[in-house]
Amino acid sequence: MGLRFGRDVNAYTSYDETVYQVSLPTTQKQNLQQVMAIFSEWSNAATFEKLEVDAERGVITEEWRAHQDAKWRTSQARRPFLLANTRNLDREPIGLMDTVATVTPAQLRQFYQRWYQPNNMTFIVVGDIDSKEALALIKDNLSKLPANKAAENRVWPTKAENHLRFNIINDKENRVNGIALYYRLPMVQVNDEQSFIEQAEWSMLVQLFNQRLQERIQSGELKTISGGTARSVKLHPIISPLFFRVNATRR
User: Fold this and answer.
1) Nearest CA-CA partner of 229 in 210, 211, 201
2) Average pLDDT by consecutive 10-residue portion of the chain (251 residues)?
């Protein structure tokens, strides 16, 4: 199909989800059929061969090592401030390097069989494709996945801080000064029209802020500002901080 890892095939893991993505032209129907079959194998037929697992250890370790810079150290220093009183504070998505070095294929297979269950999955198809045809392909390839007993999803209690807090992070190798303002918001579960509208309103607010800031930067009004962002991020199932950030490059 001419797909390349990184460009067309990719995956990522966050605090509460693992996402596999494939982008491909929809002009050839056989491509979509092949991709559906691939997703079926990913969902139920991973083998965890020892040679492949050992090779992946090096990939993950190098990815972890490549991020050991000022930006990473700043992020690490910010985690106790943002993730206070949550289990996510002690659990980074990339995992612990000791675990990466010692985990066995059998342990990975056990985890895979426990969590990779149909009731834990959401399958999304987006593109110029007939919806009925896509649904038929999904049913043909994924409806027969065995539904074994999956691990129970637990929501851990979280104690939010109900007062103004501030934090100063210094790193002599960091060439960018930044100011960030965080607002704690309830996590919105988008499952009806009203929650969809609420999420859309917040998205519009974020876009307006970013657009206005970029206009001021491009006009030269903010000469030392290198960029600014505003967005809402999900840190755990209860709290979602909306943050505004402005960076100033040292001269």
Assistant:
1) 210
2) 66 87 76 85 91 95 91 87 82 91 96 88 86 88 78 71 83 81 72 83 82 83 66 53 66 54
